[in-house]
């Protein structure tokens, strides 16, 4: 079973089936098999599986090593399997803002990219709260940020793209 996850849009791709989240609740879901730290859920999905019928899938991220896992459950929430997830689901943006690190420098040469400093502050303030903007700037510059505010901001990325035609990827 091939799993990919887009952390920006919370879309899970299982064997070519794109699954939108039905919930973005954050809960402790277990321990990471790589480093034994806590796994925190980042999205919940449902799909029909030919073997088990209705399947519930919880995507969780390790708060230590940042690995992403999908936990497969049947319709009654009985655990079936854990799958390590690749987080490289690509999208085709109009304009893409990427954080300042080596990976994004390579990526920005392939895709049209906009620096966050080039976006008028009024546009950002129209969608994001001051704390969300603080988290966005911190993450963009490679600094520590409050994850809760960054997750809230990421939920608004599609609204920002719809209003201004700029896709944020921070």
Short description:
The chain is built from 5 helices and 10 strands, in the order E-E-E-E-E-E-E-E-E-H-H-H-H-H-E.
Q: How many helices?
A: 5
What proportion strand? 25-35%
Main sheet makeup: 5 strands, antiparallel
Strand order of the largest sheet: 4-5-6-7-8
What is the N-to-C order of secondary-structure elements (H for helix, E for strand)? EEEEEEEEEHHHHHE
Domain tally: 2
Overall shape: globular
Assembly context of the chains: single chain
What helical percentage do the residues reach?
10-25%
Low-confidence parts lasting 5 or more residues at pLDDT below 50?
88-112
Structural class: alpha+beta
Distance between the termini: 28 Å
Radius of gyration, in Å, reads 17 Å
Number of strands: 10
Mean pLDDT: 79
List keywords for this structure.
single chain, five-stranded antiparallel beta sheet, 32% strand, 2 domains, 5 helices, three-stranded antiparallel beta sheet, 170 residues, globular, alpha+beta
């Amino acid at each position: 079973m091939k799993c990919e996850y887009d952390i920006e849009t919370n879309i899970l791709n299982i064997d070519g089936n794109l699954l939108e989240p039905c919930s973005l609740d954050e809960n402790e879901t277990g321990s990471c098999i790589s480093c034994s730290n806590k796994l925190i859920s980042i999205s919940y999905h449902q799909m029909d599986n030919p073997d088990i019928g209705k399947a519930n899938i919880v995507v969780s991220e390790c708060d230590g090593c940042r690995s992403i896992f999908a936990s497969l459950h049947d319709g009654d929430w009985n655990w079936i399997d854990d799958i390590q997830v690749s987080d490289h689901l690509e999208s085709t943006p109009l304009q893409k803002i990427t954080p300042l690190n080596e990976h994004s420098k390579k990526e920005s040469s392939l895709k049209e990219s906009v620096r966050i400093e080039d976006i008028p502050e009024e546009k950002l303030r129209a969608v994001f709260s001051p704390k969300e903007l603080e988290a966005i700037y911190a993450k963009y510059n490679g600094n520590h940020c409050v994850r809760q505010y960054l997750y809230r901001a990421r939920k608004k990325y599609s609204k920002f793209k719809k209003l201004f035609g700029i896709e944020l990827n921070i």
